[in-house]
Task: structure prediction
Amino acid sequence: MTDHHENIPTVRDLRRCWKPHKERLSAGGGEQPTSIRFHRACSWIDRVEKNAECEDYDVDLVCLWIAFNSLYGQWDEETREPRPDRERWRAFVDSVLRLDETGFVAASLVEHKRLVMTLLEDEYLSSYFWKEPGAKRAGQSKKSKYNAQNWYIEKRWVKILDELLERLYLMRCQLVHGAATHAGKLNRTSLTRCVWMMKRLLPAFLMVWIDHGADEDWGPICFPPLGKP
Result:
Protein backbone atom coordinates (compact mmCIF):
# COMPACT_ATOMS: atom_id res chain seq x y z
CA MET A 1 0.00 0.00 0.00
CA THR A 2 2.98 2.31 -0.31
CA ASP A 3 3.67 4.72 -3.12
CA HIS A 4 6.57 2.68 -4.48
CA HIS A 5 6.33 1.40 -8.05
CA GLU A 6 2.90 2.91 -8.61
CA ASN A 7 2.04 4.87 -11.71
CA ILE A 8 0.12 7.69 -10.03
CA PRO A 9 -0.11 10.85 -12.20
CA THR A 10 1.76 13.81 -10.74
CA VAL A 11 0.45 17.36 -10.74
CA ARG A 12 2.80 18.07 -13.64
CA ASP A 13 1.25 15.18 -15.60
CA LEU A 14 -2.27 16.35 -14.83
CA ARG A 15 -1.59 19.97 -15.77
CA ARG A 16 0.04 18.92 -19.04
CA CYS A 17 -2.99 16.81 -19.96
CA TRP A 18 -5.37 19.62 -19.00
CA LYS A 19 -3.52 22.39 -20.89
CA PRO A 20 -5.35 21.96 -24.25
CA HIS A 21 -8.74 22.17 -22.50
CA LYS A 22 -7.59 25.18 -20.49
CA GLU A 23 -6.51 27.02 -23.63
CA ARG A 24 -9.73 26.15 -25.44
CA LEU A 25 -11.94 27.24 -22.55
CA SER A 26 -10.05 30.49 -22.03
CA ALA A 27 -10.27 31.38 -25.72
CA GLY A 28 -13.72 32.84 -25.09
CA GLY A 29 -12.29 35.28 -22.58
CA GLY A 30 -12.83 35.66 -18.84
CA GLU A 31 -12.25 33.27 -15.97
CA GLN A 32 -13.55 29.75 -16.59
CA PRO A 33 -14.98 28.06 -13.45
CA THR A 34 -14.00 24.59 -14.66
CA SER A 35 -10.38 25.65 -15.12
CA ILE A 36 -10.38 27.49 -11.79
CA ARG A 37 -11.55 24.36 -9.99
CA PHE A 38 -8.84 22.30 -11.68
CA HIS A 39 -6.17 24.88 -10.89
CA ARG A 40 -7.20 25.11 -7.24
CA ALA A 41 -7.22 21.33 -6.82
CA CYS A 42 -3.79 20.92 -8.41
CA SER A 43 -2.32 23.69 -6.25
CA TRP A 44 -3.18 21.76 -3.08
CA ILE A 45 -2.03 18.41 -4.44
CA ASP A 46 1.22 20.11 -5.44
CA ARG A 47 1.65 21.20 -1.81
CA VAL A 48 1.38 17.56 -0.75
CA GLU A 49 3.91 16.43 -3.37
CA LYS A 50 6.38 19.03 -2.09
CA ASN A 51 5.73 17.83 1.46
CA ALA A 52 6.52 14.18 0.62
CA GLU A 53 9.81 13.87 2.48
CA CYS A 54 8.41 15.45 5.65
CA GLU A 55 5.69 12.79 6.09
CA ASP A 56 3.42 15.35 7.74
CA TYR A 57 0.24 13.35 7.14
CA ASP A 58 -1.95 15.71 9.16
CA VAL A 59 -1.19 18.54 6.74
CA ASP A 60 -1.35 16.17 3.76
CA LEU A 61 -4.88 15.01 4.49
CA VAL A 62 -6.19 18.52 5.01
CA CYS A 63 -4.58 19.67 1.74
CA LEU A 64 -5.92 16.67 -0.17
CA TRP A 65 -9.44 17.25 1.12
CA ILE A 66 -9.21 20.93 0.15
CA ALA A 67 -8.23 19.76 -3.34
CA PHE A 68 -11.27 17.48 -3.41
CA ASN A 69 -13.51 20.26 -2.11
CA SER A 70 -12.23 22.50 -4.91
CA LEU A 71 -13.82 20.06 -7.33
CA TYR A 72 -17.12 19.23 -5.62
CA GLY A 73 -17.90 22.50 -3.81
CA GLN A 74 -20.83 24.50 -5.13
CA TRP A 75 -22.33 27.88 -4.27
CA ASP A 76 -25.99 28.00 -3.25
CA GLU A 77 -27.50 30.96 -5.09
CA GLU A 78 -30.46 31.18 -2.69
CA THR A 79 -28.72 30.96 0.69
CA ARG A 80 -25.59 32.73 -0.59
CA GLU A 81 -23.24 30.21 0.97
CA PRO A 82 -21.56 26.90 0.00
CA ARG A 83 -23.84 23.87 -0.22
CA PRO A 84 -23.37 21.11 2.43
CA ASP A 85 -20.34 18.86 1.95
CA ARG A 86 -22.07 15.47 1.86
CA GLU A 87 -24.73 16.66 -0.56
CA ARG A 88 -22.11 18.00 -2.91
CA TRP A 89 -19.55 15.20 -2.89
CA ARG A 90 -22.28 12.60 -3.46
CA ALA A 91 -23.56 14.55 -6.45
CA PHE A 92 -19.99 14.99 -7.65
CA VAL A 93 -19.25 11.27 -7.40
CA ASP A 94 -22.46 10.50 -9.33
CA SER A 95 -21.36 12.88 -12.09
CA VAL A 96 -17.80 11.55 -12.23
CA LEU A 97 -18.92 7.93 -12.49
CA ARG A 98 -21.48 8.84 -15.15
CA LEU A 99 -18.76 10.54 -17.20
CA ASP A 100 -16.06 7.95 -16.56
CA GLU A 101 -16.23 6.07 -19.85
CA THR A 102 -12.56 5.15 -19.50
CA GLY A 103 -13.09 3.55 -16.08
CA PHE A 104 -10.38 5.45 -14.19
CA VAL A 105 -12.23 5.42 -10.86
CA ALA A 106 -13.32 1.78 -10.98
CA ALA A 107 -9.78 0.75 -11.95
CA SER A 108 -8.36 2.66 -8.99
CA LEU A 109 -10.83 1.06 -6.57
CA VAL A 110 -10.02 -2.40 -7.91
CA GLU A 111 -6.26 -1.84 -7.87
CA HIS A 112 -6.37 -0.59 -4.29
CA LYS A 113 -9.08 -2.91 -3.00
CA ARG A 114 -6.95 -4.06 -0.09
CA LEU A 115 -6.52 -0.48 1.10
CA VAL A 116 -10.25 0.21 0.66
CA MET A 117 -11.13 -2.86 2.74
CA THR A 118 -8.67 -1.87 5.46
CA LEU A 119 -10.28 1.56 5.73
CA LEU A 120 -13.79 0.12 5.82
CA GLU A 121 -12.96 -2.21 8.71
CA ASP A 122 -11.25 0.48 10.80
CA GLU A 123 -13.68 1.20 13.64
CA TYR A 124 -11.89 4.48 14.44
CA LEU A 125 -13.05 5.79 11.07
CA SER A 126 -16.66 4.77 11.67
CA SER A 127 -19.14 7.41 12.84
CA TYR A 128 -21.34 4.51 14.05
CA PHE A 129 -18.56 3.39 16.42
CA TRP A 130 -18.03 6.86 17.87
CA LYS A 131 -21.70 7.23 18.84
CA GLU A 132 -21.06 4.72 21.63
CA PRO A 133 -17.43 3.50 21.60
CA GLY A 134 -16.95 -0.06 22.80
CA ALA A 135 -16.21 -3.63 21.74
CA LYS A 136 -19.76 -4.29 20.51
CA ARG A 137 -19.88 -1.31 18.17
CA ALA A 138 -16.29 -1.93 17.11
CA GLY A 139 -17.33 -5.34 15.80
CA GLN A 140 -20.53 -4.08 14.20
CA SER A 141 -18.74 -1.20 12.49
CA LYS A 142 -16.64 -3.70 10.53
CA LYS A 143 -19.70 -5.01 8.66
CA SER A 144 -19.09 -2.62 5.79
CA LYS A 145 -15.95 -4.55 4.90
CA TYR A 146 -17.93 -7.74 4.40
CA ASN A 147 -20.70 -5.91 2.54
CA ALA A 148 -18.06 -4.37 0.31
CA GLN A 149 -17.05 -7.78 -0.99
CA ASN A 150 -20.49 -7.98 -2.62
CA TRP A 151 -20.34 -4.36 -3.73
CA TYR A 152 -17.14 -5.14 -5.63
CA ILE A 153 -18.70 -8.20 -7.27
CA GLU A 154 -21.77 -6.15 -8.24
CA LYS A 155 -19.57 -3.19 -9.32
CA ARG A 156 -21.45 -0.81 -7.04
CA TRP A 157 -18.82 1.89 -7.26
CA VAL A 158 -21.13 4.63 -5.97
CA LYS A 159 -21.80 2.69 -2.77
CA ILE A 160 -18.13 1.88 -2.25
CA LEU A 161 -17.12 5.51 -2.72
CA ASP A 162 -19.89 6.74 -0.44
CA GLU A 163 -18.74 4.50 2.41
CA LEU A 164 -15.09 5.26 1.75
CA LEU A 165 -15.52 9.03 1.62
CA GLU A 166 -17.51 8.99 4.86
CA ARG A 167 -14.48 7.49 6.58
CA LEU A 168 -12.03 9.89 5.00
CA TYR A 169 -14.32 12.77 5.95
CA LEU A 170 -14.44 11.65 9.58
CA MET A 171 -10.66 11.82 9.76
CA ARG A 172 -10.70 15.20 8.03
CA CYS A 173 -13.22 16.48 10.59
CA GLN A 174 -11.15 15.22 13.51
CA LEU A 175 -8.22 17.27 12.28
CA VAL A 176 -10.03 20.41 11.16
CA HIS A 177 -12.28 20.64 14.23
CA GLY A 178 -9.49 20.24 16.76
CA ALA A 179 -10.34 16.67 17.76
CA ALA A 180 -6.81 15.34 17.22
CA THR A 181 -3.27 16.22 18.19
CA HIS A 182 -0.83 17.22 15.49
CA ALA A 183 1.51 14.28 14.87
CA GLY A 184 -0.35 12.38 17.60
CA LYS A 185 0.49 8.70 17.98
CA LEU A 186 -3.04 7.37 18.38
CA ASN A 187 -4.30 8.06 14.87
CA ARG A 188 -1.11 7.57 12.80
CA THR A 189 -2.10 4.29 11.16
CA SER A 190 -5.62 5.39 10.24
CA LEU A 191 -4.43 8.81 9.09
CA THR A 192 -1.64 7.39 6.93
CA ARG A 193 -4.07 5.06 5.18
CA CYS A 194 -6.49 7.93 4.58
CA VAL A 195 -3.71 9.94 2.93
CA TRP A 196 -2.70 6.97 0.75
CA MET A 197 -6.30 6.58 -0.39
CA MET A 198 -6.80 10.25 -1.18
CA LYS A 199 -3.55 10.25 -3.17
CA ARG A 200 -5.05 7.56 -5.38
CA LEU A 201 -8.63 8.77 -5.65
CA LEU A 202 -7.92 12.39 -6.58
CA PRO A 203 -5.80 11.66 -9.67
CA ALA A 204 -8.52 9.25 -10.86
CA PHE A 205 -11.18 11.95 -10.42
CA LEU A 206 -8.99 14.48 -12.23
CA MET A 207 -8.30 12.11 -15.13
CA VAL A 208 -12.06 11.79 -15.61
CA TRP A 209 -12.26 15.60 -15.42
CA ILE A 210 -9.59 15.89 -18.12
CA ASP A 211 -10.89 13.21 -20.49
CA HIS A 212 -14.63 13.68 -20.12
CA GLY A 213 -15.47 16.66 -17.87
CA ALA A 214 -14.04 19.77 -19.50
CA ASP A 215 -17.43 20.76 -20.91
CA GLU A 216 -19.49 19.57 -17.94
CA ASP A 217 -21.41 22.11 -15.87
CA TRP A 218 -20.00 21.66 -12.36
CA GLY A 219 -22.26 24.34 -10.90
CA PRO A 220 -21.57 27.79 -9.43
CA ILE A 221 -18.05 27.99 -8.05
CA CYS A 222 -17.52 29.12 -4.45
CA PHE A 223 -15.67 32.42 -3.94
CA PRO A 224 -14.56 33.06 -7.53
CA PRO A 225 -11.43 35.20 -8.00
CA LEU A 226 -12.45 38.85 -8.33
CA GLY A 227 -9.08 40.35 -9.05
CA LYS A 228 -7.14 42.81 -6.90
CA PRO A 229 -9.14 45.17 -4.65
